UniProtKB/TrEMBL annotation:
Annotated source species: Rhodovibrio sodomensis
Catalytic residues identified in the record: S59
Keywords, sorted A to Z: DNA integration, DNA recombination, DNA-binding
Top-level lineage group: Bacteria
Identification of the protein by name: Resolvase/invertase-type recombinase catalytic domain-containing protein
Chain ranges of the Resolvase/invertase-type recombinase catalytic domain: 51-166
UniProt cross-references to InterPro entries, sorted A to Z: Recombinase/Transposase-rel, Recombinase_CS, Resolv_N, Resolvase-like_N_sf, Transpos_IS607
Any Pfam family the entry gives: Resolvase
Length: 166
């Protein structure tokens, strides 16, 4: 699959200056070089290496043993569906907030194109559909092993731990 990059980005690969890349493109010496609608030089290149990542998350350290079970379930599902998992990411972090370093690092990685999770709630409790749409707009996909909802109510759980005073 091909994608187009700015000529200055292309120049960084062979180690030539931006101006040299511009001259080479102007003289037709770069295969796949073309001008876009704004008149800027772009170069068509092969897509960089992409990867499929399995993501497992639990809410607390007490549930850490569940991470291995999630990873095993994802690996089994992927093997049955002829999907090669390139990397496994494990994280301990609450679904109530967005402070998950491993997921943030993963989303910033340009090589990641497909995220495989066991349940939708493993990514986040809230904003799941917005995340899916944002990733789809970037050409990335989310695969869910078990697409049914987990039988728990986060609001009910939160209220059970809250103390109500008259």
């Amino acid at each position: 699959m091909k994608c187009s990059v700015r000529s200055s980005h292309w120049a960084s690969e062979p180690g030539v200056s931006k101006m040299t890349a511009w001259r080479m493109a102007s003289n037709g010496r770069i295969d796949g070089a073309f001008r876009n609608d704004a008149g800027r030089w772009r170069v068509e290149i092969d897509d960089p290496e992409t990867e499929t990542v399995a993501y497992a998350r639990v809410s607390s350290h007490e549930q850490k043993s569940d991470l291995d079970r999630q990873i095993a379930r994802i690996a089994e599902w992927a093997a049955g569906n002829d999907i090669k998992i390139d990397r496994f990411v494990r994280e301990v972090g609450s679904g109530w907030n967005d402070q998950r370093k491993q997921l943030t690092k993963l989303l910033r990685d340009p090589r990641f194109v497909q995220l495989v999770v066991e349940h939708r709630e493993r990514r986040a409790r809230f904003g799941i559909h917005e995340l899916e749409h944002a990733l789809a707009a970037c050409g990335r996909h989310i695969r869910v092993v078990e697409d049914k909802e987990i039988d728990d109510d986060p609001v009910r759980d939160r209220l059970q731990h809250a103390r109500v005073r008259p």
